Known about the structure:
The chain is α/β, with parallel strands linked by helices and 293 residues long. It has two domains: 9-138 and 206-288, Rossmann fold; 148-200, no CATH class. The protein contains eleven helices and eight strands. Helix 2 links the parallel strand 5 (101-105) and strand 6 (130-133).
Amino acid sequence: MPPIPAADREGTTGSTEVPLYWREDGDREAPPVLLLHGGPGAHHDYLYPQMLFLARNHRLVTYDQRGGGRSRSDDRTPVTWQTHVSDMGMIIGELEMGMPDVVGYSWGALLAMLYAIHTSENNSPAPNRLVLVSPAPATRQWRTEFESALAVRSSGDTVRALRAELDASGLRETDREQFRQRSFELSVAGYFADPARVTELTPFRVIGRVQQSVWDSLGDYDLRESLRKLKIPSLVVHGRHDPIPIASAEAIAQLLQARFVVLEDSGHVPYVEQPAKLSAAIDQFLDSTANDS
């Protein structure tokens, strides 16, 4: 996997209940973009180095969401979706981002939608534009379908053969670090259209306690009616072979009256599987709507 360049600027928040690590890249005077990682309970850097293309023409800010990465703490208070929405607003305010464009990946795309709904319902400043990449399901029912599809793919013939190959390799005894790396890759191989591409993904860790508490807080959720009320220029990008139902992404796009781009030969990780097509779609959207937002 390619190395991750050092941040142009970085720090921790002082306005949030617990300090959150943030990173900033690109020209500080350029239009701001806030990048939201997936999870929940993960950290920002597995989106890098690929998603750093956003810093070419923007002030790119991302952060480790509460409970994961360098934003972990000893606070055992359950982290909820409301926690993340509040933290996101604090980040935008503390870093003086105004009304940034928001690019959300997977769970981060769902967080972007939840934040936009919250600001709309409370007459607060909304995101300038939304870019939703491989968005997490818009309803609990679609999430159930995703969980089933991922389970099937993760136990399919290709992944089972790769696991057998790893077990027979002797790496567990001879190279524990390499064994752990390969084990991680196989744990997420079901997300990819071609499991061989998983070696290009920067490894990450999900804190299960945080992930569970966030999903529990959403309950039997359904965002569709709330999304219909939003009036924000939006782009939705989804891989044809993503285990998240394409029907969910298509519904999100229709409800937001958004541009909808389906990437062929891609699963849930288009920034690894189809980076050129993903960056072209995002750049084209941001360039062409610069005067509409």
